[in-house]
C-alpha cells in the first residue's frame, strides 16, 4: 500500500541515508517512474546494467561487436550503455536500470502491470523500464548515490564474481540459457514488428550464436 516499492537484490550492500536520499528525489520529481543509484562492483567499477540504453539492433551490434569499447563515449557507438552520459555527476535520464536496486513509484508500476513473468532471469528490468517509458514515465540514474553490488554472485556466470559464487553447475547453465532467452523475449515483444523480416532473422540468429558461445565459455 506504500507510495513506493523497492526491489533489492540480496547481493547488495546499501549504505546509510541511501534510501532517504532516493525517497526525497522521487518526492521532488513526480514524473519519474523509477530510479536507481550507482551500482558499483567491489573494485569501484560501475555495473553497466544500472545505466542502460535499450537493446535495439544497432545498440546490440555495437556492443557485442566491440565497437563500443573502441568509442566508449560516442553517441553513435555507445548507445547500449549510454556511455556519453557516464561522466555526468547530475541525475539524468536513461532508458533502463538494473533490477538489482529498483525504486519504483507504485502508481507507475500499477499502470504498466508490474513485472512480466515470461522472463525467468534477466531482461525483466529492461522490459519494465520500456513499458514505463511508453507510458511517459522517466527512468532516472542518480550518480551521487552508490550501492555496493556483488553482481552475478547468485547465478555464478559473471566474470567478476564467479569465484565468489556457490551456484551449482545446473544453476549456472540455467542462468546462461536464461540470459539469451530474455533477449529473444524482449525482441519479439517490443521490436519484431518494427523491423524488416530479414533483420529479425539476423538478430534472432545472432542471439542463438551468443547462447552457444556463452555455454562454451560458461561466463558472461
TrEMBL record:
Stored Gene3D superfamilies: Spore Coat Polysaccharide Biosynthesis Protein SpsA, Chain A
Domain of life: Bacteria
InterPro entries per UniProt: Glyco_trans_2-like (IPR001173), Nucleotide-diphossugar_trans (IPR029044)
One Pfam family from the record: Glyco_trans_2_3
Residue stretches making up the Glycosyltransferase 2-like domain: 4-145
Protein name per the record: Glycosyltransferase 2-like domain-containing protein
Biological source species: Candidatus Blackburnbacteria bacterium RIFCSPHIGHO2_12_FULL_41_13b
Amino acid at each position: 500500500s506504500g507510495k513506493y516499492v523497492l526491489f533489492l537484490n540480496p547481493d547488495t550492500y546499501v549504505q546509510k541515508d541511501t534510501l532517504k536520499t532516493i525517497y526525497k528525489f522521487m518526492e521532488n520529481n513526480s514524473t519519474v517512474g523509477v530510479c536507481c543509484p550507482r551500482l558499483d562492483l567491489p573494485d569501484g567499477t560501475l555495473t553497466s546494467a544500472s545505466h542502460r540504453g535499450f537493446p535495439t539492433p544497432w545498440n546490440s551490434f555495437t556492443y557485442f561487436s566491440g565497437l563500443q569499447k573502441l568509442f566508449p563515449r560516442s553517441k553513435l557507438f555507445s548507445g547500449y550503455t549510454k556511455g556519453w552520459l557516464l561522466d555526468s555527476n547530475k541525475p539524468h535520464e536513461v532508458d533502463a536500470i538494473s533490477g538489482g536496486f529498483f525504486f519504483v513509484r507504485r502508481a507507475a508500476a500499477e499502470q504498466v502491470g508490474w513485472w512480466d513473468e515470461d522472463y525467468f532471469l534477466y531482461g525483466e528490468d529492461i522490459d519494465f523500464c520500456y513499458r514505463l517509458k511508453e507510458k511517459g514515465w522517466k527512468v532516472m540514474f542518480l550518480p551521487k548515490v552508490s550501492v555496493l553490488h556483488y553482481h552475478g554472485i547468485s547465478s555464478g556466470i559473471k566474470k567478476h564474481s564467479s569465484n565468489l559464487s556457490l551456484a551449482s553447475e545446473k544453476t549456472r547453465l540455467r542462468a546462461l540459457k536464461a540470459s539469451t532467452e530474455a533477449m529473444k523475449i524482449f525482441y519479439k515483444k517490443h521490436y519484431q514488428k518494427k523491423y524488416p523480416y530479414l533483420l529479425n532473422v539476423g538478430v534472432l540468429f545472432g542471439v542463438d550464436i551468443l547462447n552457444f558461445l556463452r555455454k562454451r565459455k560458461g561466463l558472461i
